[in-house]
Amino acid sequence: xxxxxxxxxDRVPVTVPKGTTIIEAAxxxxxxxxxxxxxxxxxxxxxxxxxxxxxxxxxxxxxxCVTAVADGQVVHxxxxxxxxxxxxxxxxxxxxxxxxxxxxxxxxECELQNFVFQEGRAGTRYAEYPKRFNPVEExxxxxxxxxxxxxxxxxxxxxxxxxxxxxxxxxxxxxxxxYIGIAPDQLLDHPWSGNVVDLCPVxxxxxxxxxxxxxxxxxxxxxxxxxxxxxxxxxxxDTRDEVVVRLRPRPNLEVNRHFMCDHGRMDYRxxxxxxxxxxxxxxxxxxxxxxxxxxxxxxxxxxxxxxxxAVVLASGRAxxxxxxxxxxxxIATGRVTAAVRVPRGGEAPLxxxxxxxLRAERAPNGAGARLAGYDAEWDSALAAAGSADLTLxxxxxxxxxxxxxxxxxxxxxxxxxxxxxxxxxxxxxxVTTMAEENGTYLNRDHRIQRFLQAxxxxxxxxxxxxxAAETWSRLAEGRDxxxxxxxxxAALGQEIEELAGLRxxxxxxxxxxxxxxxxxxx
Amino acid sequence: MGYPHPPHPRETVVLSKYFGDQAARTFxxxxxxxxxxxxxxxxxxxxxxxxxxxxxxxxxxRGGAGFPTGLKxxxxxxxxxxxxxxxxxxxxxxxxxxxxxxxxxWTPHQLIEGCAIAAYSIGAERCYIYIRGEFTEPWRVMxxxxxxxxxxxxxxxxxxxxxxxIEMVLHRGAGAYICGEETAMMNSIEGRRGxxxxxxxxxxxxxxxxxxTTINNVETLAAVPHILNQGADWYKGLCLGNPxxxxxxxxxxxxxxxxxxxxxxxxxFPMRDLIHDLAGGMRPxxxxxxxIPGGSSVPIMNREEAESALCDYEGIVEKGSMLGSxxxxxxxxxxxxxxxxxxxxxxxAHESCAQCTQCREGTAWTTRILERILRGQGKPADLDLxxxxxxxxxxxxxxxxxxxxxxxxxxxxxxxxxxxxxxLSGAVSPALVGA
Lengths: 522, 435
What we know:
heterodimer, A: 522 residues, alpha+beta, Ubiquitin-like (UB roll), Rossmann fold, seven-stranded mixed beta sheet, five-stranded mixed beta sheet, 14 helices, 20% strand, elongated, B: 435 residues, alpha/beta, de novo design (two linked rop proteins), 18 helices, 11 strands, 42% helix, globular
């Protein structure tokens, strides 16, 4: 085992691969070494000097972010000398810091605030001079720079240089006059530039979109998957009082490391739309009338039972569970044609990270849909709908021309989130969005990943898998509908070979790569 | 600074022998004075043999750290399969230091020859000379000399027909003190911001452009041809008792002495004689109060320490300071140490590269506290604060700029407390600051 070394950090023994840094080894031991400039996805310049730790037999304090572990090494993160050094760094960082926490977006999730609270001095000895002042600058479409709060950790500069490879940011000036500069006549408008806001350990780089929207401690955080494209970046949905206020990347070293693109980051306002279908609606005397779920399900059962063929037109944003169960229900008619709508757009890679890009396939679950049997060409499915007995729309967005075609179909049932009446639907069944339900997406690399419910659905809306499964169970005696998304997912394994035997618990919150399957990756 | 003084009889002139001699600047003039014989000799040996001679001579780095030069060269990998680089540090920006400037001005070929020998010894085909941006005349002199050396095949694809290639690139700094720090210098040459890098990796493993690199000071490299010509034993014999400090050294003596200038003496020379005899002693009616010997980045010596010290690496350490670049800032009894220290701190605050927190904020804060004391608004607790700040600024950063700022402050407060107390007690009227 020569490629492993064992060391002791704050009396905790830990064994890590050779070449690991002390800061990462400490993480393994459950010890956080306070730091600012270090970030696991960026180079380590060791300049904030915050992660200085005591290493026995070393002549001076060592920066944990660049010091490699050694066998038998004894490290003290919280020794008196290290604590005093960090207290000094914190005092120095604060002499030019405005302490405007009450109006700062970062308050509550600020690493300066946190570490000062944890290890800093109670008061400052720097009282008699005005602090360094520079005006707020607009760096790009969504990013503001507040230089007064900046601690010059240079994470933003390194992100733009090393990962975005768009060298627009720099450190300008010297000494305590230094600030983050932007190249003349340039904007911080790279498709991934929003990450500098997350990377900034203080409130120096802030998002205009989130500006003064919420205090960090008022936010509820839900693990999710970005619905913006087929990359499947892991994200956190931040809600305040059940309103989605921002999306942030959630680390997943296999998919998106610590990042997400600006397209995905800003693609959340639809989650808060108010024009939602809140109750099942049935067409009676050419008017849509609200009914209860029992009546709605009964009506749906009648329509399915009467049909001999069905077409399913689904959104690529629907969960694998909803896609699988809706198609499963449609099979009961005898003949089913299923197609998924996946909008397309330009690709935008983050060049410094392999296989990470905003993908052309601008829906999260095209691969999941194909796996679940949505294999028809869109146009031929639309044509088939014209002669099918039953057309199911699974929360799909259609153009006016397509809506005209659908309106001429024999019987249309919408499993829908939005109020609209272009289709002459017999039945409209209110369903939840991905932010309002548990489910899974399959990304382009065939990684199946879970997302969790971040806010309640409106009114009587239910997940589409529930609607389909309940209807399916009523079609014949002795059928039990799944009671949860987990059960709905587990049941998919009986129909879809690649998912056989998989359970939610095994996916965790970072997902699992499926064995290579025949379905293509978009 | 005008022209050099005639040598004092107690000087040992090796490097400075031709200072002031216009004709020595040309290639022809230099070869006529024995120049380039050492390079030819070196090319006839293996690189390893040259390194051994330099090792045996005891030559140590003249830029400040005093690291044995031959040992440094021997750290360069053998058969690395990568290009090697030599960088000559001619970014002489240390306050009170002006020795390299005179080597560049008067004996450019002495330096070029030393660089070529060093480049050959470490397997480098390319040498960068990083010249301080403010050095306009030395720059012109060097440009001319390098062109001459190329024309005479002392540089180029086939140096003196040996089949060895040695290219030389003059690189001009843009006015940052920190670019004299070797890793910042490498960044600067690469076109990056002149920020010091963390070590490891050391330059010999991954230096300029990520390749094995050796960085030597001008004066160090200028001494190399003399060692090759006259032998390691001769150089080792230039010693006044301390075998760890051999050879001659240029001392830039400035400040409140009668005859400021560069003086070349054998290492181990008594500091008392250097100041009181060679540099002409104090101005009339004045007495010696303090010396900052290593440029400004070292602890201040008081009169007793200075007058009893021997001018070599160990001798000055013994008296509580460091030889550094050997730019002696001599201070007499008319000076106000608080102001002197303030002025140095202000320099460091201005020149901090802004990477490390302790340096970026600490140098500026130190300056402001000293300024406040000078304004008569100091409090007794300020001295403890300065010492505590200095503690945070020492040994905790990537490079030693913040240590350099702390050194004069700590030694000043410890050794010249009375100057601070005069301000703190209100015994003197506030000084004019901000100049």
